[in-house]
Amino acid sequence: MGFPWPGARLRTTPGLVLQLDGFGGWLARHSVSTTAVPGLRLDHLRALQALGGGGDEAALVAALAADGGPPLDEDTLDEVIDTVLGHGLLGVEGHAHGVAGGFALASAQLPMVADAVRVAAYGAAITAHAPGKRVAELGCGTGILSATAARAGAAQVWACDEADVIETARSLIADNGLADKVQLVQGRSFALMPPAPVDLLIHELFGTDPLEESVLDIIRDVRDRWLAPGGRLLPRGFTVWAAAYGGAGFDAVEPLPARLTAALAPLGLHPGPLLGAADHPVRRPEGGLRAPPAAALRGPPVAVLEVDLHDDAPLPAGARRHLLRLDGDGPVEAILVWFDIALDEVRRLSTGPAGPPTHWGWQVHDLPAVINGHDGDLLELEVEVCTEDGLEAVRLRALRRAAPDPS
């Protein structure tokens, strides 16, 4: 097929990320929050480079003839275009041109915005630190946190997002009378700079696994380039926790439009254009806004990873072992994994089952077989920070019963 119609102009997606895999091949994704496209060849990369500034089929053929690479016959060129266009690595000019998946759509971000626990915690920290400060937001999405900083009295707010969802942010910020206080820029953070160094850098790129969206590389890059000396990251770090789990049961949730309105009301904001998107089905992460019964936790959690975003210390290499102590007799069916966010030195936001549920939910790692545990038993947990498709993530490798603690 190749180009979708005669005269069509294609352009490389603005949020394109290219990475080498562990075998010398190439991975690509049209957003840091989307699944990688493996197995790209040099032909695909040449086409993506040639269409970086946009062009029709004739312009592409001319660029490929001039780049020093081997010539491509018509069938090969059609296959190249079909592959990169089908995976969203190219867009058609005059149509939706930004990132087409992941959190690029407002509807995909609604569970985050309607999460009253998340919004209140971030809102309180931003209100405490933004007044009079130069503020930047990395990955602003629908613009809620930037709007909160502006309402809190920030001296200036500059925010960016690589995806077309930034148009929803423009609309929401205008609807709330803040268009003259917030500057929004679309593009990849690696290629952007705020007008001046900032005092406060806000970010919220966390998935259910807080490492799964390459957050460390992205945040450390903008931290070093955007923050003024003595500036503050918000959040400043996070801790990953694990606990033995032995039970099931979930609570019902309120309709999404009602949760959106309730979450934003304490900030003096109304959801405006988000309500329309809420009329469509929205995928909710497993466990999001649901809570397991407290009795299902079979013992105290242990911290399996701590990250200070102001520090450049590398993530731990190799598998590390942790012991989970069981309280009482009963089955262990899975391991629950969640994280706490350090918003500042005193404010923390927990996604754990002991607090109110959040949209993040948690990771559930089912055991190969149920363990009938007894009071005082120890379970040995092997945890490794590993890479999948070029993204770091926390994964559990093995679990087995350890000898009882002699103490």
The termini sit apart by 70 Å
CATH class descriptor of the largest domain: Alpha Beta
User: What share of residues are in beta strands?
Assistant: 25-35%
What would you say the CATH architecture of the largest domain is?
Answer: 3-Layer(aba) Sandwich
Q: Provide the helix percentage.
A: 10-25%
Count of helical segments? 10
| Low-confidence regions | 95-102, 249-253, 280-289
Q: How many domains would you count in the coordinates?
A: 2
CATH topology of the largest domain: Rossmann fold
Order of helices and strands: EEEEHHHEHHEHEHEEHEEHHEEEEEEE
Q: Please give the largest β-sheet.
A: 5 strands, parallel
Annotated CATH homologous superfamily of the largest domain: Vaccinia Virus protein VP39
Tell me, what's the shape?
A: globular
Radius of gyration: 23 Å
Tally of strands = 18
Q: What is the average of the pLDDT values?
A: 81
Strand numbers in spatial order across the main sheet: 8-7-6-9-10
Structural class: alpha+beta
Please provide a written account of the structure.
The protein has 407 residues and is of the alpha+beta class. The chain has 2 domains: 10-96; 110-402, Rossmann fold, CATH 3.40.50. It is 24% helix and 29% strand. It has 10 helices and 18 strands. It has helices at 42-50, 57-66, 74-86, 106-113, 116-129, 144-151, 166-175, 215-226, 256-264, 274-277; strands spanning 10-12, 17-20, 26-29, 37-40, 90-92, 134-138, 156-161, 182-186, 198-203, 227-234, 237-245, 302-308, 320-325, 330-342, 348-350, 363-373, 378-388, 391-402. Strands 8-7-6-9-10 form a 5-stranded parallel beta sheet, sandwiched between helices. Strands 11, 12, 14, 15 and 16 form a 5-stranded antiparallel beta sheet that branches. α1 (42-50) packs across α3 (74-86) and α5 runs parallel beside α6. The chain is globular, with a radius of gyration of 23 Å. The model is unreliable at 95-102, 249-253 and 280-289 (pLDDT under 50).
